């Protein structure tokens, strides 16, 4: 299924997930008990403490962005330098080597959450949104055709996006399907389930 180009007119920003990076180090800790790997886990945990403190203070918008930059930037700089030093000392094909290089390869996308307070530090909210799909996929194993599967994924993604934006998925989809036949391709993004949808359609 080809997605309308209007959906991506502002480009696509890649964000990497700190949970997944942390998990690669945790797996090595479990396998080898490496003190160096445990240090990596602790350094990443410091980033999450900053996020937790920000939530406790209910920080939002530019206040949250400034808070992150002031507290997380030094932690990230230290972690990046430490990983570079460690990369030269680890044995190739070791679990620690793979974990370190995975983090360094993803670094630009990992620190991008500092640029915008609306960007999460990880993709846990998305994973939680698709959890029902993951739990039910055995039931959908024989969905009948690849194209049908792609359509199902697109619909489920849109419904999860509607929920994430505080919209009623049923109300949004009913309105979008009713307007779809008369909506020009260049205006297709007006049907997206994003914040402001209800205001647009009143």
Count the E strands. 0
The helix-strand sequence is HHHHHHHHH
Helices, by number, come to 9
Question: Class by helix and strand content?
Answer: mainly alpha
| Strand-residue proportion | under 5%
Report mean pLDDT, rounded to a whole number: 85
* C-alpha termini separation: 30 Å
Number of structurally distinct domains = 2
Q: Which residue ranges are poorly predicted, with pLDDT under 50 across at least 5 consecutive positions?
A: none
Question: What composes the largest sheet?
Answer: none
Percent of residues in helices comes to: 55-70%
Q: Can you tell me the overall shape?
A: globular
Q: What is the CA-atom radius of gyration, in angstroms?
A: 21 Å
Walkthrough of the structure:
The structure is a single chain. The protein has 202 residues and is mainly alpha-helical. It folds into two domains: 18-115, no CATH class; 124-200, no CATH class. Helices cover 62% and strands 0% of the residues. The model has no long low-confidence stretch (mean pLDDT 85).
Question: Top keywords for this entry?
Answer:
mainly alpha, 202 residues, single chain, 9 helices, 62% helix
């Amino acid at each position: 299924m080809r997605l309308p180009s209007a959906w991506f007119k502002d480009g696509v920003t890649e964000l990497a997930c700190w949970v997944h990076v942390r998990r690669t180090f945790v797996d090595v800790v479990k396998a080898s008990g490496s003190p160096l790997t445990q240090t990596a886990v602790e350094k990443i945990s410091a980033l999450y403490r900053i996020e937790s403190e920000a939530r406790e203070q209910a920080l939002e918008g530019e206040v949250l962005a400034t808070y992150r930059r002031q507290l997380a930037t030094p932690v990230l700089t230290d972690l990046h330098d430490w990983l570079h030093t460690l990369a030269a000392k680890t044995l190739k094909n070791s679990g620690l080597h793979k974990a370190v290089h995975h983090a360094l390869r993803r670094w630009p996308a990992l620190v991008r959450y500092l640029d915008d307070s609306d960007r999460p530090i990880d993709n846990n909210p998305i994973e939680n949104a698709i959890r029902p799909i993951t739990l039910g996929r055995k039931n959908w194993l024989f969905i009948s055709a690849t194209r049908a599967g792609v359509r199902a994924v697109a619909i489920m993604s849109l419904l999860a996006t509607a929920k994430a934006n505080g919209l009623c998925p049923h109300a949004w989809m009913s309105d979008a399907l009713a307007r779809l036949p008369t909506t020009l391709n260049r205006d297709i993004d007006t049907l997206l389930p994003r914040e402001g949808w209800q205001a647009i359609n009143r």
